[in-house]
Amino acid sequence: MIGTAEGSRILRKNSVEKKHANGERTLSTEELRARTQQLSLREQIERNHFLLERLYAASAGIIQALTEGDVHGAIGEILGNLIGSEEVAIFHYNKADRRFVRAWSVGVSNDMLQQFSKGAGMMGRTVSQGLTQFRDRQNQAHLLSCEKNLTASVVLKSSREVVGVILIFGLLPQKNGLEWVDYQLLKFLETYGALAIELHCLQKNAVKP
Amino acid sequence: MGLKKILLVDDSCTARLVNRMIFSQKSNYELISAVDGKEAVERARQDKPDLILMDIMMPRMTGLEACRVIKQDRSTSNIPVILLTTRGEESYVQEGYASGCSDYLTKPVNDAELLDLLKAYLGE
Q1: Which chain A residues contact residue B88 at CB under 8 A?
Q2: What is the pLDDT of residues B66-98, one digit of tens each?
């Protein structure tokens, strides 16, 4: 649940209880409706603020990584700290030879990642459709055995070309699933994560003698 | 009333930044930061913050070790330490409280929960 929503619920509960404690009259239906509308509007504003905070932190993390040279690590930090997964792999995709190259990973075994390097299943569909794939939206009968613990295969696109894929495996135990804000952060990574990786690769190649 | 000083300890700049933005919703907090447990211990001794919000998994010295050192040092032992970490497993929670932390929160952080907790320790 988004934190701002919880905050609003506490406010609502306190305000009604205070009225009763002071011996004041109960709110009329009209007043309750107005109060509910105010809370709903506040909730929308706070939800947006919650998202912008995280998008800004993600963007700043990537900008800093461009200077320090660890773009993949910065994407890993965003996934760990803001979305809630420490089982992640990033593959670069070479369109010319249709090859995936593992660029970075954390919390996933080499054996597991080798099963993904051929780009079958969700990962293959990510590239062929140019769209992020979520396991819970797939036909469960078509999932590969290695995809049981895969949460999402996120497309990385630069100038409409697929340049890579982020595989997100298990979420942290305290996460029940991806939430609204997580989907927005993944959308951000689809584009800006891809651009950062592309720039990083260009910079790396440029310094080679 | 004077500003309450909070020491943010995290090796992730993304995490430090998002916490800074959450705290900026309140005007009565002064924020200082450290990037690992070792620096946290130094800053706690030097700056005497009113509260420490610290990650666990960090290079040089983990948050658990830093919390133990801070709690054993008479000059810093009264500073509340809240551990804020991705590690939600029961064993980590138990180890966190054994190290002397006052509270244990898991990431991804929830704005309202964090601000309510700070209010409980630092007042309005």
Answers
A1: 172-174
A2: 999 999 999 999 999 999 999 888 899 999 999
